[in-house]
Amino acid sequence: MNRTDRLYALVEELRAVAPRPRSARWLAARFEVSARTVERDIDALQQSGVPIYAEPGRTGGYCLDKARTLPPVNLTPGEAVAMAVALHRMEGTPFRSAAGSALRKLVAAMQADDAAAARDLAERVHLLGGGPPPPVPRLVSDAVAGRRVLRIRYADREGGATTRDVEPLGYVGKETHWYLVAWCRLRDALRAFRTDRITSVSVTAEVPAPRSLRRADLDIPYGPVRHLTLG
User: Fold this and answer.
1) Which of 90, 108, 122, 124 is most exposed, with the fewest beta carbons within 10 Å of its own?
2) Is residue 74 a contact partner of residue 47, using CB atoms and an 8 Å limit?
């Protein structure tokens, strides 16, 4: 079990038995780690705002205040990333830090596999500039999460149109438009497609082999590229 899954499981274990405590030794045996690792995990959860407190005594241990925490949240990976994009609009406001903390708590309360999928999707979203990007067509906005090959009709800057099969890899957003970053089979290379120039989209049944998207792969001449984070 990786650390992210273990942190989630620790919270759910304490929630299940609350208000009774679980000792560090019991939790260590349950998750097959050392008691010191459990203590570090509990400290990390407390620092992130999870209401866990220590109950002293021979029968004491760690307790979770169920009244101040959320049960598992049925937030989809796409919804979590949408909230992270919305936070981009709050940059420079007095509430940016609080909003980021709220998002981290929501992600921590998600099902472990959904939270992992949300983090993977967030790593494929990059932002340029400080203002909010415009809306994206629905089929394009679902492209990366859907993990299927798209057939698009695309108009270049001169107005010439081509039909291409592309493997969606991520997004780059700026104040005036979004790019869909994808592997273009017509050009056999990575390409960034302005979404306002995609005139039609159809989703195929093909699921391509996974491809990575590194920041070094993004070659859009418009200032520094900011990586999206979940809070």
Assistant:
1) 90
2) no
- pLDDT at 131 exceeding the cut of 80: no
DSSP symbol at 126: E
Look up the pTM and report it: 0.60
Look up residue 223 and give its two tokens.
């200032």
Confidence of residue 143 (pLDDT cuts 50, 70, 90): confident
Assign a CATH topology to domain 3-68: Arc Repressor Mutant, subunit A (1.10.10)
Contact 143, 180 (CB under 8 A): yes
Measured between alpha carbons, how far is 82 from 63 in angstroms, rounded to an integer? Answer: 33
Annotated domain spans of the chain: 3-68, 77-227
Encoded tokens for 148 = 């299927």
Confidence of residue 231 (pLDDT cuts 50, 70, 90): low
